[in-house]
Specification:
Layout lengths: L3 E3 L29 H5 L2 H4 L10 E6 L16 E2 L13 H10 L16 E6 L6 E3 H13 L4 E4 L8 H12 L3 E5 L18 E6 L17 E4 L1 E5 L5 E5 L1 H16 L7 H10 L10 H7 L10 E4 L5 E2 L2 E9 L4 E8 L2 E6 L4 E6 L5 E11 L4 E10 L5 E10 L6 E11 L4 E8 L2 E7 L2 E7 L5 E7 L4 E6 L4
Parallel strand pairs: 2-4, 2-6, 3-4, 6-7, 7-8, 8-9, 13-19
Antiparallel strand pairs: 1-5, 10-11, 12-14, 14-17, 15-16, 15-18, 18-19, 20-21, 21-24, 22-23, 22-25, 25-26
Length: about 475
């Protein structure tokens, strides 16, 4: 029997605004400023280690998906089970919005940043222009997606009745290795919603920017995780706008599942599901993406972590703070700093920072960062700096100056020449203990008043080391 069900468009109308927050990865997409869900779930932190992979296919079983620049090169040929053809174009907008939440290209100055930048989208049209469809077409769409290698199947749809037809399709997808993710529904009740309530399906509810459940989001023990219920998305025209409902939370989680699927070694659907549910933030059940990544099995992981020096000059002196950025798909266990082949310190938590006493070195010093992931994979990066902890050498000559026509002396002049392997930054003249003149560079000539009781020259090298030399004024 064909059972007609409505899509979830009726509940997809609310928008709760939230300010953008600073993030470890902040893409250039103009719509990113409104994507509060990315920072809430720490997707932006996960982006430092994974942004998806083209090997991961996410099927959007919905109203179809229209081609957009933000999906260019990653929108696969699909199928239309409503009109029975191979053109899964979107005549509603719902499916395209879901697809962009999942996989809009990030950091391309266009539209929004999807959760899984490099995942590919398989469009499967099972809902008509009004957002309605049948269990039969939905089941066919699930099977079609599974047969075409979808790692994740996203279903922003459902109905109130259970169905052997849907259960069989979900079981079939599971045997093919796919994780089925479905919307919990938008009636604000605890009554099970299908196919989300099928035990092997990952059921998704919607939460606000403050972490509370949206009033319209269905709830209950059958809901596995929650995710931001209002997200920026792009419709078929490419215009960015609010997309709300468990219809929106579902593709968000599907994108997160895509990030997990892109890791090495490739996890199974069951492992992805377990990682997402075991690390959810209680009591809301919100997904925590970095935590989920760390929860994946690491046996067989051969991907080394990424590590880089923070801002550090090529010339240093005294006590120096060395910072590092490190990331890994399954988590970094520790970062170590070596100087001149000797271990300086180990840091096990981000942000990674080390205090290195460069003194008494005045020489080139090789620095080395060693980053280990949880599996023990090692990455080493090196940088040479020059430690300069000695002031410049200074030659100083004091000479009398005479008035015109051989008159008595009017004062003195000080001629200075300073040298340093790293270069001399500036010279200062001190008369009677006070700075009276400054000059950039390594050489200079200064006038000294006739009544001066003492004169000194202070030279600074480029590292900031000073050297003070006293001048002899004589009689």
């Amino acid at each position: 029997m064909r059972k007609l069900v409505a899509g979830l468009l009726a509940g997809a109308s609310m928008l709760v605004a939230a300010p953008a927050q600073a993030a470890p990865v902040r893409p250039s997409d103009p719509g990113f400023a409104a994507q509060w869900g990315v920072t809430q779930t720490r997707v932006d932190e996960a982006w430092s280690s994974t942004r998806g992979s083209s090997r991961v296919v996410v099927a959007v079983v919905d109203t179809g998906v229209s081609p957009l620049p933000d999906l260019a090169g990653r929108l696969l040929p699909g199928q239309d089970f409503v009109n029975h053809d191979a053109d899964p174009s979107d005549d509603n907008g719902h499916g395209t919005m879901a697809a962009t939440v999942i996989a809009a290209s990030g950091n391309n100055r266009t539209g929004i940043a999807g959760v899984c930048w490099y995942c590919r989208i398989l469009p499967v049209k099972v809902l008509n222009a009004k957002g309605g469809g049948s269990y039969t077409d939905i089941a066919l769409g699930i099977r079609y997606a599974a047969d075409r290698g979808a790692s994740i199947i996203s279903l922003s749809l459902g109905g109130s009745d259970d169905s052997p037809l849907l259960r069989d399709a979900v079981d079939y997808a599971e045997t093919k290795g796919a994780l089925v993710v479905a919307a919990a529904g938008n009636r604000g009740v605890s009554t099970p919603h299908y196919p989300a309530a099928i035990p092997s399906v990952l059921a998704v509810g919607g939460i606000t920017s403050s972490g509370s459940r949206y009033d319209w989001s269905n709830y209950g023990s059958w809901v596995d995780v929650t995710a931001p219920g209002c997200n920026s998305a792009q419709g078929p025209s490419g215009v960015v706008g609010p997309y709300c409902g468990t219809s929106s939370a579902t593709p968000f989680v599907a994108g997160v599942a895509g990030l997990l699927a892109a890791t090495d070694p490739a996890p199974s659907a069951a492992q992805i599901r377990t990682a997402l549910t075991a690390t959810r933030v209680l009591p809301s059940g919100r997904v925590d993406v970095p935590a989920a990544l760390r929860a994946l099995p690491i046996d067989g992981d051969v991907t080394r972590p990424a590590v880089a020096f923070g801002a550090v000059g090529t010339l240093v002196r005294g006590r120096v703070t060395i910072t590092a950025a490190a990331s890994d798909q399954h988590g970094v266990s520790r970062v170590q700093l070596y100087a001149g082949g000797r271990l300086v310190a180990t840091d096990t938590t981000a942000p990674y920072s080390f205090a290195w006493q460069s003194a008494p070195n005045t020489a080139a010093v090789p620095l080395e960062l060693r980053a280990y992931d949880r599996r023990g994979n090692l990455t080493v990066v090196r940088r040479n700096v020059r430690a300069d902890n000695a002031g410049p050498a200074v030659q100083l000559t004091v000479a009398r100056t005479m008035r015109a026509a051989g008159a008595r002396p009017a004062g003195r002049t000080v001629t200075v020449r300073a040298t340093d392997p790293a270069g001399v930054a500036r010279l200062e003249l001190l008369v009677n203990g006070r700075v009276t003149a400054r000059k950039a560079g390594a050489t200079g000539r200064f006038a000294v008043p006739a009544k001066a009781r003492s004169v000194q020259v202070r030279a600074y090298d480029r590292a900031g080391n000073p050297r003070v030399v006293n001048g002899k004024l004589g009689g």
